[in-house]
C-alpha cells in the first residue's frame, strides 16, 4: 500500500508539470522580405530561381553541393529543376535532390503570394538557428557558419478559375531554414499558427476528377549510381503521408514547439538517411474560447484516467522504463488523434486562455532567442538517442570545450537493457548540465531510495545501493563491471558481432555485408585476439593498419595496474564507440562506429560494427608493421575521449618499405550512475605493448592481436590534438600548402596539389597529366566514378606518373612512360616478379611491319632512351598501328583530334576534363574472307537504326520499350565508318555518311537490296546527315571542310549552303513541316547551335550560352521544340525555335553522340556505355538500355517506321 501511495505521488507530480506553448506566430518566424535582403521569385505557376551560389558548399545526405534553386512549388533543390509536370504530382523519392517543406502545385500569379529567399550570415540568425539545433539534438554542439532562408508568404494553390466563381482565398505561409557548417547540415521547417489553409492540390491533367493530392513534406536524396544503389528507405524521408498529417503540421512538431520541425539532413563523413530531432516534449496549444473540445490539441484529463492505471507494475513498465517517452515515428506523430506529443496528461478542466499558476509561457521568438519553452521543475526523461545518431560523435568543437573544462551538457545517455532487465531505477535527468569539476546534479527527492523497489535493475552478480541523491548498482566482490553488467574476475571473455558498411580503397568501393567479428580476451595478461572473416580484397589489405578495430577490446579488457580501471569496469556491456581516422598523406577519412548491445544468452558481448569511408590502397601480399604505442584517455561523465597519431610501416616487394600515419579521434559514450562515489580517474594511459596484424588472402580473414595494460599517465600527455599548430592556425606553412599535424605540436608542411616547394614557401606549377588523370577518375563520370575495379594511376611527389603502376583489383603491375602509357611487354600478373621499370624497355616486337604511327613513336622512344620527359610528345597508336583519333601532348592535358595521317584537325584542341569527341577517319583492317554487304528482311515494325562503325544495326521497339533480344545487324559495311544516319519514310531508304570512304550512301530496306553511293567527291569528314522527305532533299555537314551542303536524294543539284563561321559542325536535323534547318558546332572556343531555312536564308545563332560539346540534336514534332544532348555539360535540354522556353530535361546524360525523339522518349547513343539509352521526357528518368554484343562506339541514330511519322514528311 505504501508503494502505491509513493507511486501515486510521483504520478501526480509527473502529470502536474506540463507547460503550455502556443504555436509559433508568423511575426516570430525568421525575418523575411526585401527589408531583410531577400530576393523574390517572379510571379507564376512554375518559377525557379537563378542558381543561388553558396559561399561554402553544404552537404545534403553525403553529397556536397555548391548551389541551390528555390521553386514556386514549395521546394528547394540542389540541382536545376525539371518542369513541374515531371515532379509536382509525384510521390517520393524523386530523381533529383529535394528539400520539401510543402511540395504542391502552388501558383503566385496575379499577386497571389510571394516567395522570398536569401543567403544569410548575420550573427543573430546563425546564433538563433544554432540554438535550435543544439536543443533539438542534445550533445551535438553545432555552430552554423552559413544559412539559407526561404519563405512562402500567402501563396495560393493552382486552380482552374471558372467564370462562375473567382479564385479561392485559401493561402499558405511557411518557411524553411538551412543551416550548415563544414561538416553537418540541418533544416528547420516552420509552419506559423493558422498559416496553412489548403493541404493539397489537384493534378492539372485530372482536374475535373476532383482528385486532390496531399502536399508532400520531406526530403529526397536524388539519383543514386547503380553501383551505390541504396535501399528504398534510404532514398527519401517523408514527414507526411496523408492530408490529415499535413493539417497537423502547424499543431505539432519535433523541436519542442508546435509548428517547428528540425532535421539533420547531411554529413561530410557518412549519412544513410535524414534524422529528426529528438525533443518529443511538444507542448500542447491551449484551446481558444468557444472552440469545440474535440478540436483541442490536448485531451481531457478524464481521457487519461482509464489510460494510465494506478498499478505499480504498469507504472514500472511504462513510466520508469522511459518507454512512454520514446519518439514516435513521424507518420504516427502526425496521424495520431491528439496532435501534440504529450509526455504527461494535463490535470485541469480550465477552458479559458489563462494559464495555470506557475505554468510558463512561450518565449518570444525574435532577435536571437530560440523557439523554446521554460521547463517545469520535473522534466520528462529524454528519448533514447540513436546509437550512431547525431549525439554519438564528438565534434572537434566539443573536444575543445572539454579540453577547456566548460560546464556543458555532454550527450544524452543510451539505454540498452539486457533481456529481462526492462525495469530500471534511473529516474534522474540524463541531459542535465554537468560541471566537470564538481559533478553537481540536481535531482528531485522522489528519486531517492528506490533500491527496495528496483533491485532487479542491477546485474544478478551485483547489488543496489541508495545514496542521498538516488541509487546505483555495483558488482559483488569477485566480479567487475558497472553494476548493470558484471563479469567474473579473471575469466576469459568473448565478443561476437557483425561488421557492415562501405569502404573505398582508393576509388574502388567494397561493401561489407554483415561479415563476422569474433574476439577472445585473456584478462590475466591483457591479451585480445580479434578476427574478421569474409573480408573481400582489396579491403582486407587496406584494413590492416586499423588497430582500433581490435584496439577497442584492448582498452575494454586491458590488464589493470593498481588503482586503475579498464573500460568494462566503467562502461559495462552497453556503449557506443565512435572513431574518426584521417590517413596521411592522402587525407582519406574513415569512420568506425561500434555499438555494444549487452550480453547474448551465452554471456558473450554483442557488438555491431559499422565502417564507412576511404582508405589508402595497400598492395596485395604486403605486410603491415605497427610498433607498440600509448594512448591517453580522458574521462568525463558518461564520456571517454582520446586523440592520437599512429604510424605504421607497409613492406611489399613492389614498393619496398614505406612509413605512413593516421590521426585517430575516439570517443565512447555510455550510461553512468552519478549518485554514488566517483572513483574513476580523470585520465589513464593505455600501453599497447605488442601489436600483430595480418590478412590471410586464401581464407579472407583479418586477424588482430594486441597486449595492453591500463595505468597512470607515465609521461606528459600529448597536447590536445586541436591545439596542434595545424588546428590552432599558428603553423608557418605557406597559404598554398597543407599543414599535416603530427605528435603533440609537431607538424609538416606539404605544398598543395598544383604547387611546389618545401611547404614553408610554395610556388605555383601547372597540374601534371598524371594529376589531371588521377583527379578526373576520382571525380569521375556518373557511369564510372564508383565502378568496381577502376584503375587509379599513382603519381610521385612531383606529380609525374610512377614508373611502375599496379591495379589494386587485379594485382597486375606494369611499366609506363612519362605520359602514363603502358610499355608493351612489361605487364606481370599477381604473384610473379615485376619488371624493373628503371631499366630501358626494349621495343615490343610485332608480327607485322610497323605503321607510320608506330615507327614515329618507337623512334622518339629510342631518342628519349625509353623515358620521355613530361614535355615531350609521343604519338599514341591503337592496336592496329593507326593513330588514335585523340592525341594528347605531354602533361599539359591538351588533347586534339587527328586525321588518319596524324595531322591535327583545326579547332579541336582543348584543355578540359572531357576529351574531344574525335571520330576515326580510317577503317580498321579488313578481316578476310570478306562477306558481301548483307541486308536483313524488310522492317515490319518501328525500329531504331543506329550507326556503329562498319555496320548499321536495327533495334525493334515495342511501344517505347527496346526489344533488345530482337536486335540485329541491318547492314554490314566492311571498311566503312558510318557516322551520320537518317531514314526517308517515303522511299523507305536509309541514308548515311561514311568517313572512311568519304561518301554519302543509301540503301533500300528490301531483301537483297544493295547499297549505292550518291555522293563520292568533294568530301573530307562528312558527319551529320538529315533527310527532308517532304522536299526530297538531304543536308550534311563536313567538319573537315567546315561546310554545310545540300542536294537531291540522288546527289544531284548539289550546292553549298554555308562555308563560313563554322569550325567543328557535327549534328544536323531538319523540320520538314516548317522548313527550318538546325545544326551544332562544337568549336571549343565558342560552341553554338544555329538555324536557318532549308534554302539557306535567315541564318542565326539559337543557343550559345551554357553549352560545351553539343553532339546530339533532335526535334520534337509535337511540341515543336528543338532538343540537344551535350557531352560537355552532361545535360539534355530543349528550346523553342524562337529561342524561348529553354528547359533542362535531364542533367546527367554522360557522353551522348547521336539522338532521336520518338513517342515522348529520347533515344541517344552513349560513348561511356557504348550503347543506346532511353529517357522519358515526362519523368526525366532513364527507362531502358541496349548494349550491343560487339562493344564499340555508336554514332548516329534514327527511327524507321512502316509509315511516315508526323514531322518527318
Automatic annotation (TrEMBL):
Locations listed in the record: Secreted, Extracellular space, Extracellular matrix
TM ranges: none
One cellular component term from this protein's GO annotations in UniProt: plasma membrane
Cysteines paired by S-S bonds: 806-813, 888-895
Position of the signal peptide: 1-23
Domain NIDO per the UniProt entry, residue ranges: 101-268
Mapped LDL-receptor class B repeat ranges: 988-1031, 1032-1074, 1075-1119
Protein name: Nidogen 2
Record organism: Paramormyrops kingsleyae
Amino acid at each position: 500500500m505504501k508503494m502505491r501511495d509513493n507511486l501515486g505521488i510521483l504520478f501526480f507530480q509527473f502529470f502536474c508539470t506540463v507547460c503550455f506553448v502556443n504555436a509559433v506566430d508568423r511575426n516570430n518566424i525568421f525575418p523575411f522580405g526585401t527589408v531583410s535582403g531577400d530576393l523574390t521569385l517572379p510571379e507564376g505557376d512554375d518559377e525557379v530561381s537563378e542558381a543561388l551560389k553558396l559561399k561554402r558548399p553544404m552537404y545534403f545526405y553525403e553529397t556536397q553541393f555548391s548551389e541551390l534553386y528555390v521553386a514556386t512549388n514549395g521546394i528547394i533543390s540542389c540541382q536545376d529543376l525539371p518542369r513541374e509536370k515531371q515532379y509536382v504530382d509525384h510521390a517520393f523519392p524523386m530523381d533529383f535532390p529535394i528539400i520539401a517543406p510543402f511540395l504542391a502545385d502552388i501558383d503566385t500569379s496575379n499577386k497571389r503570394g510571394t516567395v522570398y529567399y536569401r543567403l544569410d550570415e548575420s550573427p543573430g540568425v546563425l546564433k538563433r538557428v544554432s540554438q535550435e539545433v543544439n536543443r533539438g539534438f542534445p550533445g551535438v554542439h553545432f555552430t552554423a557558419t552559413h544559412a539559407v532562408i526561404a519563405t512562402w508568404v500567402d501563396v495560393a494553390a493552382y486552380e482552374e478559375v471558372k467564370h462562375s466563381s473567382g479564385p479561392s482565398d485559401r493561402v499558405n505561409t511557411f518557411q524553411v531554414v538551412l543551416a550548415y557548417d563544414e561538416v553537418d547540415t540541418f533544416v528547420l521547417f516552420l509552419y506559423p499558427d493558422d498559416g496553412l489553409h489548403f493541404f493539397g492540390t489537384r493534378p492539372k491533367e485530372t482536374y475535373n476528377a476532383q482528385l486532390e493530392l496531399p502536399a508532400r513534406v520531406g526530403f529526397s536524396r536524388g539519383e543514386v549510381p547503380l553501383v551505390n544503389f541504396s535501399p528504398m528507405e534510404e532514398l527519401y524521408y517523408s514527414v507526411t503521408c496523408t492530408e490529415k498529417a499535413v493539417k497537423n503540421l502547424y499543431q505539432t512538431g519535433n523541436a519542442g514547439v508546435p509548428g517547428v520541425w528540425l532535421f539533420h539532413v547531411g554529413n561530410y563523413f557518412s549519412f544513410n538517411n535524414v534524422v529528426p530531432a529528438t525533443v518529443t516534449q511538444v507542448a500542447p496549444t491551449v484551446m481558444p474560447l468557444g472552440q469545440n473540445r474535440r478540436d483541442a490539441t490536448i485531451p481531457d484529463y478524464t481521457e487519461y484516467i482509464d489510460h494510465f492505471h494506478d498499478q505499480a507494475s504498469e507504472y514500472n513498465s511504462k513510466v520508469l522504463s522511459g518507454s512512454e517517452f520514446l519518439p514516435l515515428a513521424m507518420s504516427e506523430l502526425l496521424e495520431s488523434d491528439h496532435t501534440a506529443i504529450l509526455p504527461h496528461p494535463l490535470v485541469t478542466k480550465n477552458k479559458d486562455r489563462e494559464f495555470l499558476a506557475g505554468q510558463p509561457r512561450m518565449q518570444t521568438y525574435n532577435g536571437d532567442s530560440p523557439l523554446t519553452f521554460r521547463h517545469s521543475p520535473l522534466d520528462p526523461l529524454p528519448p533514447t538517442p540513436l546509437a550512431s545518431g547525431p549525439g554519438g560523435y564528438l565534434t572537434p568543437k566539443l573536444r575543445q570545450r572539454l579540453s577547456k573544462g566548460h560546464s556543458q551538457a555532454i550527450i544524452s545517455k543510451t539505454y540498452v537493457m539486457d533481456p529481462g532487465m526492462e525495469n530500471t531505477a534511473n529516474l534522474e535527468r540524463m541531459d542535465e548540465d554537468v560541471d566537470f569539476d564538481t559533478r553537481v546534479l540536481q535531482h528531485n527527492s522522489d528519486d531517492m531510495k528506490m533500491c527496495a523497489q528496483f533491485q532487479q535493475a542491477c546485474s544478478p552478480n551485483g547489488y543496489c545501493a541508495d545514496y542521498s541523491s538516488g541509487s546505483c548498482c555495483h558488482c559483488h566482490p569477485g566480479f567487475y563491471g558497472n553494476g548493470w553488467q558484471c563479469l567474473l574476475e579473471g575469466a576469459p571473455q568473448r565478443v561476437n558481432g557483425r561488421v557492415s558498411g562501405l569502404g573505398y580503397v582508393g576509388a574502388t568501393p567494397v561493401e561489407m555485408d554483415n561479415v563476422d567479428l569474433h574476439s577472445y580476451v585473456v584478462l590475466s595478461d591483457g591479451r585480445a585476439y580479434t578476427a574478421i572473416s569474409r573480408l573481400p580484397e582489396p579491403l582486407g589489405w587496406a584494413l590492416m593498419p586499423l588497430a582500433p578495430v581490435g584496439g577497442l577490446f584492448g582498452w575494454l579488457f586491458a590488464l589493470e595496474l593498481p588503482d586503475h580501471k579498464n573500460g568494462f569496469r566503467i562502461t559495462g556491456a552497453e556503449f557506443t564507440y565512435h572513431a574518426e581516422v584521417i590517413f596521411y598523406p592522402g587525407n582519406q577519412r574513415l569512420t568506425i562506429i561500434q555499438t555494444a548491445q549487452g550480453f547474448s544468452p551465452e554471456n558473450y558481448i554483442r557488438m555491431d560494427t559499422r565502417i564507412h569511408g576511404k582508405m589508402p590502397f595497400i598492395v596485395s601480399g604486403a605486410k603491415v608493421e605497427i610498433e607498440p604505442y600509448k594512448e591517453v584517455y580522458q574521462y568525463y561523465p558518461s564520456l571517454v575521449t582520446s586523440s592520437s597519431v599512429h604510424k605504421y610501416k607497409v613492406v611489399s616487394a613492389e614498393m619496398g618499405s614505406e612509413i605512413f600515419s593516421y590521426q585517430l579521434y575516439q570517443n565512447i559514450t555510455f550510461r553512468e550512475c552519478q549518485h554514488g562515489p566517483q572513483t574513476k580517474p580523470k585520465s589513464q594511459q593505455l600501453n599497447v605493448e605488442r601489436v600483430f596484424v595480418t590478412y590471410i588472402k586464401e581464407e579472407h580473414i583479418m586477424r588482430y592481436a594486441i597486449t595492453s595494460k591500463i595505468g597512470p599517465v607515465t609521461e606528459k600527455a600529448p597536447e590536445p590534438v586541436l591545439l596542434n599548430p595545424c588546428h590552432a592556425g599558428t603553423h608557418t606553412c605557406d597559404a598554398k600548402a597543407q599543414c599535416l599535424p603530427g605528435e603533440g605540436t609537431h607538424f609538416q608542411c606539404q605544398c598543395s596539389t598544383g604547387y611546389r616547394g618545401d611547404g614553408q614557401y610554395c610556388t605555383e606549377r601547372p597540374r601534371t597529366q598524371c594529376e589531371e588523370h588521377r583527379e578526373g577518375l576520382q571525380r569521375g563520370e556518373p557511369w564510372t566514378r564508383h565502378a568496381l575495379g577502376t584503375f587509379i594511376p599513382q603519381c610521385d611527389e612531383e606529380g609525374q606518373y610512377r614508373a611502375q603502376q599496379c591495379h589494386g583489383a587485379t594485382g597486375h603491375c606494369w611499366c609506363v612512360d612519362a605520359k602514363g602509357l603502358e610499355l608493351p611487354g612489361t605487364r606481370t600478373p599477381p604473384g610473379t616478379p615485376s619488371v624493373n621499370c628503371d631499366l630501358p624497355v626494349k621495343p615490343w616486337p610485332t608480327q607485322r611491319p610497323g605503321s607510320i604511327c608506330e615507327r614515329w613513336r618507337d623512334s622518339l622512344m629510342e631518342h628519349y632512351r625509353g623515358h620521355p620527359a613530361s614535355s615531350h610528345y609521343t604519338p599514341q597508336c591503337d592496336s592496329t598501328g593507326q593513330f588514335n583519333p585523340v592525341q594528347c601532348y605531354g602533361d599539359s592535358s591538351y588533347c586534339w583530334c587527328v586525321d588518319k595521317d596524324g595531322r591535327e584537325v583545326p579547332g579541336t584542341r582543348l584543355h578540359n576534363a572531357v576529351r574531344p569527341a574525335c571520330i576515326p577517319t580510317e577503317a580498321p583492317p579488313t578481316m578476310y574472307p570478306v562477306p558481301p554487304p548483307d541486308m536483313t528482311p524488310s522492317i515490319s515494325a518501328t525500329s531504331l537504326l543506329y550507326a556503329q562503325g562498319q555496320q548499321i544495326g536495327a533495334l525493334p521497339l515495342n511501344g517505347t520499350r527496346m526489344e533488345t533480344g530482337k536486335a540485329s545487324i541491318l547492314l554490314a559495311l566492311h571498311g566503312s565508318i558510318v557516322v551520320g544516319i537518317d531514314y526517308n519514310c517515303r522511299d523507305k531508304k536509309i541514308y548515311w555518311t561514311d568517313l572512311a570512304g568519304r561518301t554519302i550512301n543509301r540503301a533500300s530496306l528490301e531483301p537483297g537490296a544493295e547499297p549505292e553511293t550518291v555522293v563520292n567527291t568533294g568530301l573530307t569528314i562528312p558527319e551529320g546527315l538529315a533527310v527532308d522527305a517532304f522536299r526530297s532533299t538531304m543536308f550534311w555537314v563536313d567538319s573537315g571542310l567546315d561546310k554545310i551542303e545540300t542536294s537531291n536524294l540522288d546527289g544531284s543539284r548539289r550546292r553549298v549552303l554555308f562555308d563560313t563561321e563554322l569550325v567543328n559542325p557535327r549534328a544536323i536535323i531538319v523540320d520538314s513541316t516548317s522548313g527550318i534547318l538546325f545544326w551544332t558546332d562544337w568549336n571549343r572556343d565558342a560552341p553554338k547551335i544555329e538555324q536557318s531555312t532549308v534554302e539557306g536564308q535567315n541564318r542565326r545563332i539559337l543557343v550559345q550560352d551554357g553549352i560545351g560539346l553539343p553532339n546530339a540534336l533532335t526535334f520534337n514534332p509535337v511540341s515543336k521544340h528543338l532538343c540537344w544532348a551535350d557531352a560537355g555539360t552532361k545535360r539534355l535540354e530543349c528550346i523553342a525555335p524562337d529561342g524561348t522556353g529553354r528547359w533542362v530535361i535531364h542533367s546527367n546524360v554522360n557522353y551522348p553522340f547521336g539522338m532521336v525523339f520518338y513517342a515522348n522518349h529520347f533515344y541517344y547513343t552513349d560513348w561511356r556505355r557504348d550503347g543506346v539509352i532511353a529517357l522519358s521526357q515526362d519523368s526525366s528518368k532513364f527507362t531502358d538500355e541496349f548494349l550491343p554484343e560487339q562493344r564499340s562506339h555508336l554514332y548516329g541514330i534514327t527511327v524507321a517506321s512502316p509509315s511516315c511519322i508526323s514531322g518527318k514528311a
